[in-house]
Design a protein that fits this description.
Elements (H helix, E strand, L loop, with lengths): L2 H13 L5 H7 L12 E10 L10 E2 L2 E2 L3 E5 L4 E6 L5 E6 L4 E8 L2 E6 L3 E6 L5 E6 L9 E2 L3 E5 L4 E6 L5 E6 L14 E3 L2 E5 L4 E6 L5 E6 L20 E3 L2 E5 L3 E7 L5 E7 L6 E3 L2 E5 L5 E5 L5 E5 L11 E3 L2 E5 L5 E5 L5 E5 L11 E3 L2 E5 L4 E9 L3
Parallel strand pairs: 2-7
Antiparallel strand pairs: 1-33, 3-4, 4-5, 5-6, 7-8, 8-9, 9-10, 11-12, 12-13, 13-14, 15-16, 16-17, 17-18, 19-20, 20-21, 21-22, 23-24, 24-25, 25-26, 27-28, 28-29, 29-30, 31-32, 32-33
Length: 385
Amino acid sequence: MNFVRFAAVVLVLALASCASKDEKKEALKAAPLVDFEKTLSVKKQWQLDAGKGQDKRYAKLAPAMSDSALFLADVDGNVVAYERETRKRLWKKDIKKDISGALSYAEGRLYLGTYDGEVLALSAEDGELLWLGEVSSEVVSVPAANDDVVAAQTIDGRLFGFAAETGEALWRYDHTVPALTLRGTASPVISRNQLLAAFGNGQVVSLNVADGALMWSVRVSQPKGRTELEKMVDVDASPLIDGGLIYSASYHGALAAFSKAKGQIIWKQDLSTFENLTLASGVLFAVNEESHVVAFNAGNGAILWTNDQMHRRNLGAPVVFGDYVASIDEDGHMHVLSQEDGRYLHRFKPSGNGFRPAPLSMGDEVWVLSDDGKLSAYTVNEKAR
């Protein structure tokens, strides 16, 4: 169990302190694996070595892609590039740093953050170090980058902007961090001239990516309760952008849609989550802290369906691929549901041990990166009846 999920259990225990021991035990009990008729088949398409993967520390490691190459990193400082079509290894580089947030790609460069409070730019052509910039603390999120600027968010509530080509420090934005937060940081996102970032006090901000000036801020959730545990409203899910709307959700708080231009709230729904959201065909999918998968109408926030069959199995972030939505539980089972109505369709175990990184959707394929450094691609097909 990682630190985030441990914190969630601590909070549930604290809030349930008035209940009987039997009620507490029942509330925290994970649902057994459901029985169902398999209507799908799964095929592994390929698998790549992503190095050591993660260790017991909290990090955010994700693949990055250019038009022709796929890039992977591990916590020990190894960065490797593969050709996308053939998956032939192009190069491997040991940067001699403990990587905590990686990778992003823009304009021929790769960007990553370290536990020592550094932001690095590497050449996507051969992995050579281009520049190194210093920040105030650990970077446990993936830096955001466009052709001109790379921005990194640190665990002490700061955002740093660097010139993408030279590494020159351009700006810094400071944000207040609550006394108690979940271990982790939402990765910032760049959209045109905007940098969107989420914080542990329940706020999302929009900055001008060129100079770090604040454009607007919005609070997804307000802290409630008497104790510091009850007041935690961290936004650990990265902002999700779709056209003129932004979606964000907080722990012990809400799911909200707001306008990209001015940050005006369009709708809100009660939801507690620390996992990323995903969107497909006007439907927004979330996994709440009870490990229920919930589908919302992205336009008005109406709940379309809920599947609670994986109750408290510690599901990770949902991923949409083909006609399906899926999530991996703490025991390594990927649960595959129908996007249309949430019906349980399939379950399988991807290769590897532990799955903290969110799976990636690549059309009809789903890519799964394991904590022990295996990147595997799967397709799911309906069985002939």
